[in-house]
# Entry
Amino acid sequence: MAPSSHARRELLGLSFTALCGGALALDLLLILGLLGLIGYYGGRTFWQQNLVELELADGRKLLGEVHRREAVPAAQGGGSRLQLRVGNRDLSGADFLWVDEKDVVRRCEPADAVLLERLEWGGFYGRLIELKKGEQSLASGPGLEAAFERLHEQKLAEGEEVRRLEKGAIGRVNRALEELRLAGKRLELEAPPAAERARRQAELEGRTAEKQAEYEQLASELGALREKLSAETLVAEAADGTHKEIPVGAVVRAIYPNRLGTAGKLGLYLSRVWEFVSGDPRESNTEGGIFPAIFGTVMMVFLMSIAVVPLGVLAALYLREYAKQGPLVRMVRIAVNNLAGVPSIVFGVFGLGFFVYTVGGTLDRLFFPEALPTPTFGTGGILWAALTLALLTVPVVIVATEEGLAAVPRIVREGSLALGATQFETTFRVVLPAAAPGILTGLILAMARAAGEVAPLMIVGMVKLAPTLPVDTQAPFVHFERKFMHLGFHIYDVGFQSPNVDATKPLVFTTALLLIAVVTAINLVAISIRNRLRKRYAGSAV
# Structure
């Protein structure tokens, strides 16, 4: 007996439901697979492998970490080969070497093998030979490791003192000298009477002489500290017998991986993770930390949120609550929806032309003429980047806000108006709070997109390396005109602009994992606020 039409429709509905469920499961599987891949490669970046010494058939000796192992095609002789991270880039010019396993005649893990993490030239793999000061030998043999450890702790403290002096006192004096220079140019532009001009000029020259004398004294102290920092050197020997003198102050860590147990490697792993999250970059962003990029990303998203919410909410309020519905309003909505599909690089070009050159150039001419032709706001900065991304994401906020306003029951508006409230009071005290969860939904989507955008930011303020943060202890404390670093651009830079691809590839996954974590943390805060508002205005059906 053939099934009835009702049964066929029911069967078709169940099949479509199963198809939708399967598509959702596939999407979740792909997302979890991507996150798992990024987490696996990003999480193992800082785990320390044992150092392996290989003796080859031709007599060469290599020391390093086994990075990966792969099979050799039969057409090339078969077998397998190892990619060894040998470091010592200043000696050999390459961090990695490929070795056929059939050429290895001896393999061991020597206990005295050391990895020296350096401020420059990456890691050094070898053995410690001697500690020197000039031509004087300070330590060698059995007491070398203990002597180096004591001296290294002292050099770390001296290095921190050098950085404090550079960023602290010397930085303040440099800023004061620059302000005095600008004050002198401002005096020339103002052109006061001769007597007043002479008095002010003499005052500026006196203050400049004081600051210049202070700077020379601080520079002399800094030179002495740097000379002291590089006075002692460590003689290390590479696997091929080559000796290298390394300033003790240039060593970040001295690690003996083959002596470390699981607990020791875990402690080293956590130390490297903390350095990566909290430290400054070095070696063209391929080593050190990425704190400036984290700070720049979060601050840029925060500024973008402050700018996009008023723009998007007010536009949606007008379109939904005040504008007379008709062809013009429909055309505006179509334009807003189409704006969401404009390529992001177009917004970057618009931000460069409008915000940077037009608005920023006008601000420079009106308020900072003494600094010209060097621009203050007439060049890329974090403020212009945030406003550009606000324009990029404002359609998302407008659409989400309109949906939230539409979900507020009409009876709520009519009840408020019936009690004597004006339309303005009804909108801002009744309707808008009830639509707040929808507004936050739009903000969450806007923040997620803004945090991952790179193309427009490359035009309006993002740089590879920013010497200072947009926030510091100097008045006015928040510097909107400064350029900034961004996690998205850092991924692009280390992944596609570095000549040492094998060394920087793990950093791509690590930075991507960190970017996902930052975006997730920001979104979780917004979602938590949205859920509280939903409970408070449960009757709004949003």
